[in-house]
Amino acid sequence: MTRTMTVRPGESIQRALDEAGPGARISLAEGVHRQHVWIRHPGVTLTGAGAGRTVLAPGEGGPVGVPRLHDAGDDVVSGVTVHGEGVADVRVEKLSVRGFSGAGIYAHTVSGVTVHEVTAEDNAVWGVYLRESSGCAVTGCRASGSQYGGVALSFCPRSGALLDGNETFANAFGIFVDNSSGARVVRNSCHGNAIGVLLLNQVYEGEPEGGVRDCLVAGNDLYGNDLAAGVEPDGLGAAGPPISGVGLALIGTHRVSVVDNHIHDNHPSGESVMGAGFVMGSSKEWGGDDALDNHVLWNRITGNSPLDHQLGTDLARQVFAGNVADKGEPPGLTAAEGWGPR
């Protein structure tokens, strides 16, 4: 039987979670709940009255021994942490998570986590961050104001993840698929970031094996990404190289299908190692690989500066068809080669 409990502002969400145990449904009443929580039982649903109506914000106290956000200090706090042996099939939905020093939602080494209709606002490091997990979904969410990714999937080698119908803005990376495979990134709107969507295969010392393979990026609207990341030592995207004005980038990816995306009106406001609305390139110098066997089909890539596309890869190892773009590198690509003018 599912145990259902309602928690009102000022009451302890953590106590309700711990007392209800596996399979519980914890309903958060409308209002501001000033606390952070740790979901450590399987089958739990944490639901609010709706984003903007139920708000989770920093406050005093909280559970003891919460696993810290990866690569962050002990004093960094995330709004909702989903972590623990055997934790699976957790659902977090219909609430706002605002102003935490870590991530809004942080899930680590779990399976089957769904984050649905959550607004993650001004969480310092990540909006929704899923790491070393599988079978997860982020759907219908809004993520803004984070130093790194609005929605991020990190080191999930067989992710089976679905990132669908989300809106991301004012982050370094709107959606970041970091060394994760088998992800579907579909029907998202990414605007006002430094880069709309980044798929990156890169080796990091002390991290799990990487790679980005067999992903689908389809039906996304990637526009107006004009912030500058990687410029200030403690600023937006501080750990990475300078990036600005990019809609979509595939770096060292294998067998990624990019289908029916609209990548338009992306303009850099600062220095950038990438120079186009759509970028394909190698990550070999960072321990990754060349971009190989990707399919880029029926995308509209227009109105970007300085270029619409920048294909720093072996074109013979990719499949291009039906793409519309005005200017790019290499220049002079034809409709027969999969690229035609607007």
UniProtKB/TrEMBL annotation:
Signal sequence interval, chain numbering: none
Gene3D superfamilies found in the cross-reference section: Single-stranded right-handed beta-helix, Pectin lyase-like
InterPro entries: Beta_helix, Para_beta_helix_rpt-2, PbH1, Pectin_lyas_fold, Pectin_lyase_fold/virulence
Designated name of the protein: Right-handed parallel beta-helix repeat-containing protein
Right handed beta helix domain span: 103-276
Species, as recorded: Nonomuraea ferruginea
